[in-house]
Amino acid sequence: MEMKTLDVIITRQDRPDSEPYDEEFSIPHRTNMNIITVLMEIRKNPVTKKGKKTTPVQWDMNCLEEVCGACSMVINGKPRQACSTLVDQLQQPIRLAPMTTFPVIRDLFLDRDRMFDALKRVKAWIPIDGTYDIGPGPRMAENTRQWAYELSKCFTCGVCLEACPNVNEKSDFLGPFVYSQVRLKNVHPTGEMNKEERLESFMGEGGLEWCGNSQNCVQSCPKGIPLTTSIAAINREATVQSFKSFFG
């Protein structure tokens, strides 16, 4: 019985400043393989389909359960996570490429610093007054907690930035994910104290005005986060904040 194989075409790049190129590999097929398994098979024996010895393919991964966002890449033209993408659900040959909205370090390994820099800019954290025990904080209403939990599922995978037409080399847009992060921290009983500061930072260059409302982000988000709802909510809050700043 002939062994079933998988053909995989990978867009590679040796250095951040070098030109990308494609290499095709053929590996044995196994049931329930995901893309990470495919890449590990290629790494064990980095030989192209034509029999040429090559360097092992570089990619990033950590949790292997769609939580860290590190293994995001473009799979058959769609940005998604390599750990949760099953081979048997894909058309062959499988094409793997790095996302285009992040600098490539090597092959499929990306520099996602722009996402974390965006979170720093909008102060996407809950500040506390010192490290000592100040007792229990204010409780969040249960109905608020339920929808806020949906926003907290964001794992900075970068898929929404890859899908957004307003995120490109000519734009400084922070990205769709920031809307929900600002909204999540602003609704927190303690985080609400810095609400105006977050809104002001997001109303600057590359902030909310740069969103074209294409809604690609909500369609591509692997966690189903209601990004367009957050966009509408932050737009309303920013309008109120702009009036406060103008007349304040």
From TrEMBL:
Domain of life of the source: Bacteria
Keywords: 2Fe-2S, 3Fe-4S, 4Fe-4S, Iron, Iron-sulfur, Metal-binding, Oxidoreductase, Tricarboxylic acid cycle
Enzyme class: oxidoreductase
Molecular function terms, GO-annotated: 2 iron, 2 sulfur cluster binding; 3 iron, 4 sulfur cluster binding; 4 iron, 4 sulfur cluster binding; electron transfer activity; metal ion binding; succinate dehydrogenase (quinone) activity
Protein EC: 1.3.5.1
Sequence ranges assigned to domain 4Fe-4S ferredoxin-type in this UniProt record: 145-173
Cofactors that this protein relies on: [4Fe-4S] cluster; [2Fe-2S] cluster; [3Fe-4S] cluster
Presence of keyword Methyltransferase: no
Similarity comment: family membership: Belongs to the succinate dehydrogenase/fumarate reductase iron-sulfur protein family.
Pfam families from the UniProt entry: Fer2_3 (PF13085), Fer4_8 (PF13183)
GO BP terms: respiratory electron transport chain; tricarboxylic acid cycle
Encoding gene (name): sdhB
PROSITE patterns attached to this UniProt entry: 4FE4S_FER_1, 4FE4S_FER_2
Protein's name in the database: succinate dehydrogenase
